[in-house]
Amino acid sequence: MSVVTVDPGVSGRTIPAGFLGLSFEYWAEANYAGNDPRAVDPVLVRLIRSLVGQDAILRIGGVTTDWTWWPVAGVPRPGGVNYTLTRRRLAVMGALASAVGARLILGLNLEANSRVVAGAEERAMLKFIGGRRIEAFELGNEPELYSSFAWYHTRAGTGLPGRRAGWNFAEFNRDFARVAAAIGPAPLAGPTVGGLSWLNLGQFLAAEPRLALVSLHRYPLFGCFNSPGSQTYPTIGNLMSESASGGLADSLVRDVAIARAHGLSLRNDEMNSVSCGNGYGTANVFASALWALDALFQMARVGVGGVNIHTAPVYPDRLFTVKRVKSRWQAMVAPEYYGLLMFAQAAPAGSDLLRVSRTRGEVRVWATRAPGGQIHVVLINDDTAHRHALVVRVLGASGTGTLERLQAPSVHATRGVTLGGRSFGARTRTGVLPHPRDTVAVRSRGGDYVVRMPAGSAAMLTLAPR
Q1: What sign has the CA pseudo-torsion 387, 392, 398, 400?
Q2: Which of 299, 318, 346 is where one domain is finished?
Q3: Is the CB of residue 392 less than 8 Å from the CB of residue 445?
Q4: The pTM is what?
């Protein structure tokens, strides 16, 4: 039987306030929250609050950042723009942030390459959302792709990219600085790059002294321009691999250090399991919950300052969908949400990651000490075929612990997911899991707790403060 030792006396990174956040496309934010700033979807608000806690950071942008504008008198609509911001839409964003108690990272159009367009967006957002609800303005979205994909099509059907062939990082640096000069003194975030090989973060930060937040994007798997034999192709095996969580986090270690050397925090403000809006059978099943739980701990391990999980109703890796039926809102909650919820329980803001050592075994283990002193030990059995038993040895512990399980019929399941025996069911009109929570008492034998883990499941052992 594998032995895992948790030492509460040795702590590592601390989970910062606002660590777990969500990310929405511009159109999806309105789809989720509704169109009336006086009646924002209350089910959505509760679902978000359960994950993000206080001091939350919500990001609104994504690919629609560069498809969006605020109309300017006398200025033709840029070719790639297909979504128009309005006073009502901005008011809904502000109302959602207020209801959740969140601050917003808001995308501004860079692909239009217009100081007038970006400046008009910023001024409208400040006016109709309010500066106290804005964490930062994020200029552009994944600029490394501006020359690779059509930003818009001519009437003849010819696709035209936002930048010329051969567009490079140095040119991006110049465009960013020129357009950013039209933005007021509000905080800026960037460079919002997803392809790290294209990025020279040190050069970018040296040229942008106004930057308040480093924002990058990471996905472990790619649903487009990929071959089935690739390690990044959307399969459950690839998603459950160490490279999809630990490897993903390790890819940011260098840039976290560069950001810190400039006195900045790095936020992975767009992350989920599969990019390109593809990946059914991988992104929408219970395996994604286990991946998300591990991936968030991995990001905290390497010093990432926060993560925003990207979701939209039409994506397979969506966290939930909502609709209004006879004036009442209801939501359908996806499996991945449950994994995020266990992380939120195990690692509230101010929690310290604790040192975990082990002899052998397939189960991944994380441990935290919450601000109230509780010890949480999270165990993730990503072995989809076999159950495992572990001895969790918590140094200095002696009392009875409680065990809460995250499980489903299989890692392929899209339904039947439970956390602590509770489920949102096929739909929820409250956005809150029912009570009571189903936990099991686990007695200590000299500080040892035996935990049996079904295949493809997770569990959290909680010990009261000493």
Answers
A1: negative
A2: 346
A3: no
A4: 0.97
CB 106 within 8 A of CB 138: yes
Statement to judge: residues 188 and 270 lie in one domain? yes
Residues 422-435 have pLDDT tens digits of 999 999 999 999 98
Tell me: do 370 and 443 sit in the same domain.
yes
Whether the ω angle into residue 191 lies within 30 degrees of 0, i.e. cis, is yes
Neighbours of 121 (CB within 10 A): 25
Cβ–Cβ under 8 Å, residues 311 and 25: no
Torsion of CA 355, 360, 364, 370, to 10 degrees: -30
In DSSP terms, 5 is beta-bridged to 357, 393
- Over residues 345-402, the pLDDT tens digits come to 999 999 999 999 975 667 999 999 999 999 999 999 999 999 999 999 999 998 999 9
Structural domain total, the chain:
2
CB-neighbour burial class of residue 212 (10 A; exposed 0-12, middle 13-18, buried 19+): middle
Q: Residue with structure tokens 């572990």?
A: 390
Are 115 and 72 a contacting pair, CB within 8 Å? no
Residues in the chain, how many?
Answer: 466
Query: Which residue range is the domain that position 410 belongs to?
Result: 2-11+350-463
Question: Within the chain, how many helices (H) and strands (E) appear?
Answer: 11, 26
Domain match, 7 and 34 both: no
361/330 same-domain check:
no
* Structural contact between residues 240 and 287, judged by C-beta atoms closer than 8 angstroms: yes
Same domain? For 336 and 359 the reply is no
152-167 core/surface letters (b: 16 or more CB in 10 A; e: else): beeeeeeeebbbeeeb
CA distance 127 to 289: 38
Q: In terms of domains, do 37 and 161 share one?
A: yes
Tokens of 241: 């691999």
Task: Tell me: do 103 and 215 sit in the same domain.
Answer: yes
Q: Are residues 145 and 272 in the same domain?
A: yes
Amino acid at 334: A
CATH number at residue 371: 2.60.40.1180
